[in-house]
Amino acid sequence: PLQMELEALRSIYEGDRCFRELSPVSFQYRIGENGDPKAFLIEVSWPETYPQTAPVLSMDAFFNNTISSTVKQSILDKLMVEVEANLGTAMTYTLFEYAKDNKELFMENQPVNTVTSASNSIAIGTPDVPASKKKDKKEQLSKTQKRKLADKTDHKGELPRGWNWVDVIK
Fold this sequence. Notes:
InterPro entries: RWD_dom, RWDD4, UBQ-conjugating_enzyme/RWD. Helices cover about 45% and strands about 10% of the residues.
């Protein structure tokens, strides 16, 4: 049965960039587009006795490192309910689809755009520091380079027509 489920998964998700087969018994599925703050990655691994026993669900992927542990836990809890409802049947596809259908619900407690003082100080406070450092460095590095560039290029940063023509008529 595992072989059949494996082939089914491969054919269903063929060409789906969200799906990754880590090994013949371990799969990752990204719910949500890349760059979506509410995207998350579920990893499903099959123990030898799957599907009679529950698959191992994990959200430890580096991709999920921005998701709070409480949200991860609640997603896993909801998925486990689904697992128990489907014990004894091939359920990896069911789990991935269930997660896709319930993405918003799963992530409703994930602070993304919520304006709470806590998440604000985290979101704004931390990136500010490296950003300002980076800016200073860039300007120090290339003031003369910038000037040279500005002399050569127009306002769009493009070189004027004919900048590399050779002046033949003397």
